[in-house]
Specification:
This protein is an all-alpha fold. The chain has helices at about 1-25, 30-55, 55-60, 65-90, 95-120. Bound molecules: protoporphyrin IX containing FE (HEM).
Length: about 120
């Protein structure tokens, strides 16, 4: 679980910085929120999930951890794609798709918190 999170996180990092670089070169900052969330939910959060699961393997080997992995890795691309296309096209219905993606991510984060409270000794 730790290794897969770290590998996925560097894919998001690459996409995030490439988008940032592109925005800077073409001087079009409309996708700043997509860039920021790709970096923060994709790179920073997933790298932290990966490191935490590496140091706490008991937390990594649970059904909740697997479920959270999929909620995060379905929710983030759905949310990012919907927000990005919505900004480009102005298509208002995509806001609800972004909200669905965001809800998946939030449920996953709450499960992650529950998992850590249950599995990591204080
Ligand atoms: C070489 C790498 C990067 C480049 C070229 C880059 C480029 C940019 C650009 C052009 C903007 C828009 C600035 C504006 O609206 O005036 C921006 C905003 C932002 N970036 Fe990056 N970025 C990079 C890496 C990162 C990373 C690693 C993170 C987070 C971990 C990050 C988080 C943010 C945030 C939160 C904003 C929004 C700031 C605001 O609106 O006040 N960026 N970035």
């Amino acid at each position: 679980m730790g290794r897969i999170y770290l590998k996925v996180s560097v894919v998001y990092f690459s996409i995030g910085v490439l988008l940032g670089l592109t925005m800077g070169i073409i001087h079009d900052f409309r996708l700043t929120s997509v860039h920021a969330h790709l970096n923060l939910l994709g790179w920073v959060s997933m790298a932290l999930f990966g490191l935490i699961y590496h140091f706490y393997p008991s937390a990594a080997n649970t059904q909740i951890a697997k479920l959270q992995f999929w909620l995060h890795n379905i929710g983030v691309p759905v949310m990012m794609t919907a927000i990005g296309i919505q900004i480009w096209t102005g298509e208002a219905t995509l806001v609800s798709v972004a909200v669905i993606g965001s809800i998946l991510v939030v449920i996953g984060v709450l499960l992650f918190a529950l998992n850590l409270f249950k599995q990591v000794d204080s």
